[in-house]
Amino acid sequence: MSALEAEVSRRVVVTGAAGKLGRAVVAHLRTVGVDVLAVDRDGGRDPRAVAGEFLQVDLTDYGQVLEAFTGGADEHAGGVGAVVHLAAVPAPGLLPNAVTFANNSAATYNVFAAARAAGIKRVVWASSETVLGLPFDTPPPYAPVDEEYPPRPESTYSLNKALEEEMARHFCRWDPELVMVGLRFSNVMDVEDYAGFPAFQADPRLRRWNLWGYIDARDGAQAVERALAHDRPGADVFIIANADTVMSRSSADLMADVYPDVEIRGELGEHETLLSIDKARRVLGYEPRHSWRDHVYPAG
Ligand SMILES: NC(=O)c1ccc[n+]([C@@H]2O[C@H](COP(=O)([O-])OP(=O)(O)OC[C@H]3O[C@@H](n4cnc5c(N)ncnc54)[C@H](O)[C@@H]3O)[C@@H](O)[C@H]2O)c1
């Protein structure tokens, strides 16, 4: 058994476990045999939300996070090998900016710091596609966008995600053994959401804000599993999207129509994602298995 397998075969804490992505991640990790302690500030009384072992934790309280990570909570003993941190106010504009910032920054600092204090060497966390410059009122520097240009946060939510990526780099500088993987998820979709996709088709400007990207929650969960297996010390970030766009028009056509002055790099497949997943494919071995096209006949 490798050092990694030994760590991940111990308990994995998943924060934000009652959320949209968290539910898919917890279900997937449990299916592949990972011992998951699901953590959220909500959902403790709803067995449909998070089946299995669950601990209600407010991540803005450092003491609660440390207790969860060190197996100190009654009935939840056991050494934690890795943390998957998904909890957050998940978008701009849901709550006043300062509330979003206070919650998300405190939660993430506490998770990173408590992992360090508990000697946990693997942290996977949810960054966001927003750091790429969403909603692209300023056009992207080129397309498909990738991880090769500095974050361009355009909202308080995104500013915090960018700061988290920077924070992870410093935690890794402090501990050369630490592996931290930031997953810049695209817009998370459950299968039920695909029924709404035909409504996107008439106006290409409706979904230009994230270059027509999306991530199936099941593929997001698969990416988390891949990220947990990453064993290169240091902090790294990966765009996690599906292989195609939400549109039935071709990707080249969409760009020519909506962003005619943006340079297209490389050959674009017909519906190829404009949020490049090449790095995730290459380094993590991530390969999306799902598409909305398997669920809804594309309009147009
Ligand atoms: N939904 C998207 O389209 C999207 C896109 C990119 C990135 N993300 C990121 O992915 C992650 C998961 O998003 P989601 O869509 O599942 O969101 P969600 O709102 O469905 O789930 C987030 C969960 O975090 C919990 N949470 C928030 N603050 C907490 C705190 N202080 N203590 C404990 N729990 C807390 C909430 O109770 C909720 O269950 C977030 O970090 C989000 O920023 C989401």
Strand order of the largest sheet: 3-2-1-4-5-6-9
Q: Which ligands are bound?
A: nicotinamide-adenine-dinucleotide
SSE succession: HEHEEHEHEHEEEHEHH
Number of helices: 8
- CATH top level is Alpha Beta
The rough form would be described as globular
| Regions with little confidence, pLDDT below 50 for 5+ residues | none
Query: Mind telling me which CATH architecture this is?
Result: 3-Layer(aba) Sandwich
Largest sheet: 7 strands, parallel
Helix/strand/pairing class, anyone? alpha/beta
CATH topology: Rossmann fold
Helix content: 25-40%
Compute the number of strand runs. 9
Sheet-strand content, in percent, reads 5-15%
Tell me the distance between the termini. Answer: 51 Å
InterPro entries: Epimerase_deHydtase, Lipid_A_modif_metabolic_enz, NAD(P)-bd_dom_sf
Pfam family, one: Epimerase
Protein name: NAD(P)-dependent oxidoreductase
Domain NAD-dependent epimerase/dehydratase: 12-197
Secondary structure topology:
Elements (H helix, E strand, L loop, with lengths): L2 H6 L2 E5 L4 H12 L4 E5 L13 E3 L5 H8 L10 E6 L11 H21 L4 E7 L27 H19 L4 E7 L2 E2 L25 E2 H12 L5 E7 L10 H8 L19 H7 L16
Parallel strand pairs: 1-2, 1-4, 2-3, 4-5, 5-6, 6-9, 7-8
Helix pairs in contact: 2-6, 3-4, 4-5
This protein binds nicotinamide-adenine-dinucleotide (NAD).
The site of nicotinamide-adenine-dinucleotide has 25 residues, from helix 2, helix 4 and strand 5.
Pfam families: Epimerase
Organism: Micromonospora terminaliae
Protein name: NAD(P)-dependent oxidoreductase
